[in-house]
Amino acid sequence: MSNTLDSKPTLVDDCRGVLHVYSDGAIVRSSNPSFNVPVQDDGTVLWKDVIFYPTHDLWLRLYKPAASCHSGSKLPIFYYIHGGGFCIGSRTWPNCQNYCFRLASELQAVVVAPDYRLAPENRLPAAIEDGYTAIKWLQAQAVSDKPDPWLNGVGDFSRVFISGDSAGGNIAHNLAVRLGSKSLELAPVQVKGYILLAPFFGGTIRTKLEAEGPKDAFLNLELIDRFWRLSIPVGENTDHPLVNPFGPISKSLETIDLDPILVVVGGSDLLRDRAEDYAMKLKDLGKDVEYVEFEGQQHGFFTINPNSEPSKKLMLVIKHFINKYSA
Questions:
Q1: Under a CB-based contact definition with an 8 Å cutoff, are residues 172 and 162 in contact?
Q2: Which DSSP string do the residues of 242-265 spell out, in sequence order?
Q3: What's the average model confidence in pLDDT over 289-305?
Q4: 19 forms bridges with which residues in the sheet?
Q5: Which of 200, 163, 194 lies closest to 79, judged by CA?
Q6: So which residues are the catalytic ones?
Q7: How many helices and strands, by DSSP H and E, does the chain display?
Q8: Where are the beta strands (DSSP E) in the chain?
Q9: pTM strictly above 0.70
Q10: Contact in structure between 114 and 52 (CB atoms under 8 Å)
């Protein structure tokens, strides 16, 4: 008889209590969201789920103002790609759903909120590819002989905006680079602009705010590092081109024509320096970029407290951007 006890696997990584990775490689996901808030569905916005990538059982959630069903006018289409460090998050989480309600209502837009494969089970570039597939789904709807009337009767395929929150902002950037200006390969769908909300970028060299920022930040440095460790391709580091757009091995963006980009970040977000540096470097390359910083705000302030004054101001900034580039 052995006199040694079998060692139990130990917890290696915990991502906001919903993703647990163990020393034996086991991955356990909770069915509960990390943002357990009430869903604020008052009936003024209609929604439904649609599968867009059957191979990977990926779904998206569509939203539209209830009044649009009778107005006869076409609304812009606004993609909202959720965040979560590429490791957690879902279109079904109540914080995501509540924000999409507000986007549809206040922007008077059709909102498309797609899911994507999560790490570490599916490391990058899986999430980027799924974001692309979600956009191609819209093109398929636009050219289909039997389109979904729920969408086609209301959405304007010539006025599409791609937005992403945190990791979703990273996906939006990579889609902007891949599709290029006027997104010709998506015809008749036309992307008019991109909204990067606190985009999740990285790099091997720490920024000043990463190195000196508060340890108790909502998205702290330990969690940032954990997300990257679990999501970047095995054997790579955070200077990977999908992670660091201006890193030492990243392709130059100088010769790539890009649609207009709005970059938004909170002043107390540890990702602020990277977002600002990204926007300034694109401006230096002559790209059409707008950078907006909300002083004192943390990462994801607009979904954590969508009724705050900064969140309301952000909605106006987004609305102005859409109106500016909808023509």
A1: yes
A2: TT-TTSTTSPP-TT-----EEEEE
A3: 96
A4: 15, 29
A5: 163
A6: 166, 269, 299
A7: 10, 11
A8: 11-15, 19-22, 27-29, 45-53, 58-65, 75-81, 110-114, 155-165, 191-197, 261-266, 289-294
A9: yes
A10: yes
**CA distance linking residue 231 with residue 76, whole number of Å:** 32
pLDDT tens digits for 66-113?
Answer: 988 666 789 999 999 999 999 999 999 999 999 999 999 999 999 999
Sign of the four-CA dihedral 278, 232, 266, 112 = positive
pLDDT of residue 6 exceeding 90: no
Instruction: Show the CA angle centred on residue 152, arms to residues 176 and 146, nearest 5°.
Output: 110
Task: Dig out the tokens for 211 from the structure.
Answer: 């190195």
| Amino acid type, 7 | S
Q: How high is the pLDDT of residue 3? A: 45
Q: Which amino acid type is present at position 54? A: P
The answer for 16, left when phi > 0, alpha when psi is -120 to 50, beta otherwise, is: left
Confidence at 1, pLDDT banded by 50, 70, 90: very low
Residue 5, token pair as written in the block:
């006890």
Amino acid 4: pLDDT: 45
Record the tokens describing residue 226, joined without a space: 């954990």
CA distance linking residue 109 with residue 268, whole number of Å: 30
Q: Are strands 11-15 and 19-22 parallel, antiparallel or unpaired?
A: antiparallel
Number of Cβ atoms within 10 Å of the Cβ of 252:
8
Q: What is the pLDDT of residues 233-246, one digit of tens each?
A: 999 999 999 999 99
Write the DSSP string, 64-99.
Answer: EETTHHHH---EEEEEEE--STTTS--TTSHHHHHH
Contact 319, 106 (CB under 8 A): yes
